[in-house]
Amino acid sequence: MKSKFVTTSLLASALFLGLGLAPVMAQGTSTPAIDRAQQAISARIQQGMASGHITPSEARELMRRDREIDLRESRFKANGTTTPQERQQLRVDVDRLGNEVERLMMNNDYVQPPGNSANTTPGIDNRQLNISARIDEGVRSGRLNQREARRLHNRERAIARHEAAYKRDGVVTPQERRQLRDELARLNADLARMMRN
Predict the structure, then answer these.
(1) Segment 27-60, tens digit of pLDDT
(2) DSSP string, the chain
(3) Of 139, 140, 44, which is closest to residue 101 (Cα–Cα)?
(4) What is the pTM of this model?
(5) Taking CA 94 as the corner, what is the angle to CA 92 and CA 100, rounded to the nearest 5 degrees?
């Protein structure tokens, strides 16, 4: 009788464990729809950069957010499963990122894509990238809030539009280069002041 009880208990335990693990096993870690959406967003960002609708600094920020989603997904998958709640959170994050990309793509105010015939000095382009990186670092370090960063990035975008306008005729004159350098210097000074406060 004791043997029958032990056997029944073992079978019940195995059945209970099997039923308890079945939903977890079914969930797994595969997230193909999320992965496909992220690939489509990356392609769309590249399109935006090529068309001039997305500036390099905007693309960098969008790609940073995409990497954060990847890291979150990896953390969720680390224990061997991805719960429905975790999948939903990933879907929401991916949808928000996709909506932001589309908002930028619908913007009629775009900059000339890189690689056109008129070439500004590399120093101006390097300063633009440096300022953009410092704005992003200011947000990460907490020395700038999102609103301040958005205003600074808008000014950076305006400078990029001026640069694109100067390039349209195929020649960037010394006066136009000086104008760009002056605008960047003012932006840089304002950024430094805001970072100190």
Answers:
(1) 467 788 888 898 888 888 888 877 778 877 788 8
(2) -HHHHHHHHHHHHHHHHHHHHHHHHHH-S--HHHHHHHHHHHHHHHHHHHHTSS-HHHHHHHHHHHHHHHHHHHHHHTTS---HHHHHHHHHHHHHHHHHHHHHHT-S--PPPTT-S----HHHHHHHHHHHHHHHHHHHHTSS-HHHHHHHHHHHHHHHHHHHHHHTTS---HHHHHHHHHHHHHHHHHHHHHHH-
(3) 44
(4) 0.48
(5) 105
